[in-house]
Structure formats: structure tokens, C-alpha cells
Amino acid sequence: MVLAQTTKEQQQEAKTPLLKLHNVKKYFPIKGGLLKRVQGHVKAVESVSFELMEGESLGVVGESGCGKSTLGRTILGLEEITDGQVYYRDQEIQNLKRHEKKKFVKEMQMIFQDPYASLNPRQRVGDALVEVFSMHTNLSAKEKRDGVVDLLKEVGLKEEHFDRYPHEFSGGQRQRIGIARAIALNPSFIICDEAVSALDVSVQAQVLKLLKTIQEKYNLSYLFISHDLGVVRYFCDRVLVMYLGNSVELAKVEELFETPLHPYTQALLSAIPRPSVHANVKRVSLQGDLPNPANPPSGCPFHTRCPIAQDVCVQSKPEWQEYQPEHFAACHFAGKSILEGADV
Ligand SMILES: Nc1ncnc2c1ncn2[C@@H]1O[C@H](COP(=O)(O)OP(=O)(O)OP(=O)(O)O)[C@@H](O)[C@H]1O
């Protein structure tokens, strides 16, 4: 309903950023030779900037290998940042001392694609969740058990699931356990890294609904990493598009899908399967593979595959600019249609 959407937008405008990234970089050294000397770097995240509001879902999309997971891990401090700043509630959080980090560990959590990989197959699920409380709280044994039972119910499971082992759960139920673990310590921010990608479509819908319910209840902010643009369109308020470690476009979800400014975003959207009534929509297939992030192209990182690239794109890297209110892109020809130069 239009009225409800407007209200949500107004609420969001009044909110303050929970998380702010400024030119974040993450390089991994490539070591070789007998002496294991550093011979170069994989530039997994080259330059990413955005703000995430309280209660907001920001989608992060882009091809496999464009740096989405590394970005998430760097925000959480699981990877040491190479350059740039990450602010959480206006405090710079990279390079914090161990004891200072502890409070942020509770506030910031992650849900992974494969919760099974992070569950011990020989440990009862209830005990695994109790451990989360043991590490971060001084609750009594009974309080911890009661807390876990409440958590299980909150994510749509039952008390009897406490004593079961991970292999006794379906994929959707395991992801509910992953969600229970993520919300146990009352976080404000959760990174969902391909959290529903491995699930069947109907189970996906249920898990997305659960994520939305707990978001509204606890005013959670999500960074929602996904390769599925359909899911992102349904779930997120805004979308960040990444290419070869760079943020190339950021906009409100409807605006991004209706008027993509960056040629890479246009190509991604044109590749979404459409119902036959839209069969006349032209598809643009990108030529060539994603370049090697250890040896990225000069100038615009997308120029080697861009159908509308000109000399300037080879020579200089386009700046990240706000073209419309809250609609950012990094392209010398932002807004120009790729159909003007593509093999369609
Ligand atoms: N620990 C690491 N050491 C060296 N290179 C790494 C490391 N982690 C990631 N990379 C490289 O960084 C780049 C970005 O990887 P990342 O996993 O962040 O991409 P992604 O967009 O999340 O991809 P996917 O959707 O496949 O998970 C890739 O080239 C990857 O090989």
C-alpha cells in the first residue's frame, strides 16, 4: 500500500546511520617462492562506501568473486581491514583492542549460507545455543536453558528440538537455528551471507518472512548479501551493486530496478529471467570473464566488459557520485543505456 510505504520511508529518513563505510579496502597478499615473499595482492575489496540505517535492509549484489563475503567479514573484523574506515554508531571500530571489541561482537552477527558447517554434528542444538549465552553472559544454567527455549520458539522451532542433533533437522530448520544463534545476544546488525540461497523456494519464503518479523520486532539492520536479484527486490530497502571489489551503484530498490544508471547494473538486471509477457525486453550478455582481482584493469574496473566504454573509461577511474537524491553510481556515462552499444 502506497500509504504504508511512505510512512516507512519517512521513518527511515528520520533515522541515524547505524553503520558507515568510507572507502573500505581489503587486499589479500599473494605469497610465493621458497621464501614466501609477497608477490602481489588480491584486491578483493577495492573501494566501498555506504551508510546503513537502523531497521534497514541493504542488499549487496554482484557476480561470484566480486568481494561480497570479504566485505561482510571485513565489517565484522573477521578480516583485518587494509584501508578505509568502518563506523558503528559513529565509533570507528576497526583496529579496536580485544576488550573494546567484545561489545561489538554482541551487536554484530552473521548468518551463513550453510549453518550445518558451523554446527558441531555431535553436539545437541540446545547445548550449542547455551554456549552462546555462556560465552557472553553470567546467566544461571536454568536461565540459559529457558533463554534457549524462548529462542527456539521465536524462530518457529519447539522446546523438544533442544535435545536433537544437527543432522535431525531439515535445511530450513537448520537456518532457523542459525538465526536463533545470531539473535541470541540481542544484536542490532546482522549480515546475511547468501542466507537463503541453498533453500527451496517455499522454504526460502518462510525464512525470509521470519527474518522480516524479527527485524520489525527488534529494529534490526541487515546487510543482505545475495546473488538472487528477485529475493533482493522482495526483501531489501536499498541495494549496493559491486563489481570487482568496487561499489558501482547504490539506490533504493525500486529506483535501482526501474532506472539503473550503471551499465553493469543494467546488464545484471537484463539477465533476470522474465515471464513470457515481457519477452520483448532485450537481454544483454556481457562479454568476457570477470577480470582477475589480483590484476584489475586500469581506469574503470568494468571497462573491459562494458558495451558503451570509451577512451576515458580506460584512462581514468570514475568517481562515486550522487546522481539523484540517494542514488549513487561510479560511471563516466551514468544513465546511458547499454543497448546503445551492446550485442543484444
Ligand atoms: N582468504 C583469502 N585469501 C586470498 N584471496 C581471497 C581470500 N578470500 C577471498 N579471496 C578472493 O577475494 C575475491 C573476493 O572473494 P569473495 O568470496 O569475497 O567474493 P564473493 O562476491 O563473496 O563471491 P561468492 O559469491 O562466490 O561467495 C576472490 O577473488 C577470492 O578468491
Automatic annotation (TrEMBL):
It comes from Chryseomicrobium palamuruense. CDD domains: ABC_NikE_OppD_transporters. Keywords: ATP-binding, Nucleotide-binding, Transport. It comes from the Bacteria. InterPro entries: AAA+_ATPase, ABC_transp_ATP-bind, ABC_transporter-like_ATP-bd, ABC_transporter-like_CS, Oligopep_ABC_C, P-loop_NTPase. Belongs to the ABC transporter superfamily. One of its GO terms (molecular function) is ATP binding. This is ABC transporter ATP-binding protein. Gene3D superfamilies: P-loop containing nucleotide triphosphate hydrolases. SUPFAM superfamilies: P-loop containing nucleoside triphosphate hydrolases. SMART domains: AAA. Residues 19-269 form the ABC transporter domain.
